[in-house]
Amino acid sequence: YNMEITLEEAFHGKTAQIHVPTSVVCDNCEGSGAKPGSQPVTCTMCSGSGRVRAASGFFSIERTCPQCQGRGEVISDPCETCSGQGRVTRERSLSVNIPAGIEDGVRIRLGGEGEAGARGGPPGDLYIFVTIKPHEFFQRDGADLFCRIPVSMTTAALGGQFEVGTLDGGKSRVKVPEGTQTGKQFRLKGKGMPVMRSTGVGDLYIQVVTETPQNLTRRQRELLEEFEAISSEKNNPESSGFFSRMKNFLDGLAD
After folding, report:
1. Which domain holds residue 150?
2. Looking at the whole model, is its pTM more than 0.85?
3. Residues 167 and 81 reside in one and the same domain
4. I want to staple 159 with a disulfide (CB 3.0 to 4.6 A). Which of 5, 26, 178, 186 is the partner?
């Protein structure tokens, strides 16, 4: 059975009710497959052993009896409700406990809640395959969460602060120092996902991405051009250093 949950549900855990179509024991024949008042009879082909032998040259091969499928008996008067199968299909309602911190792709086993066994045999197990929906803001890696937040060019240059919501229902304030470069990460300890069946908790990593201004007015363009004119290498040490090294590289190729 496939179950899809949200990241918030994976964070908190939940008890979910599911409706599963599955084979259950036929009430009319109590799983025997025979019409009430009748009984299965011994298979005449294998004499009740469930196996038959066939000669092939010098060899004798034993195989499952094709008449009774290895059961050793056949139903001469089948149950009308289940057509002799001993099982009928019904929808069952089950309660599934989703532990806090569950990860995508985890399989939950419900013992004895699977298909009913053939001819009154024991039932199998039901497996729940859990998938987690993609989140609008957070990406997950184990117990850690990651969030990319765009900030304006001026905020990255001058510094600032903003609030981010966390999956525990709270808010955390992130301070952006002046001169913050795009890609810079800030760690919020203990604000990630709980570790399933453990007391451990992951962290939330905020990655700042500087947004380049678009649709500039004439005045905005003039101010940026003025800023560019009065800028020095110390204002942009990374780009200045890169292009200086690139120039030396190109000069070396020319030589």
Report:
1. 135-212
2. no
3. no
4. 178
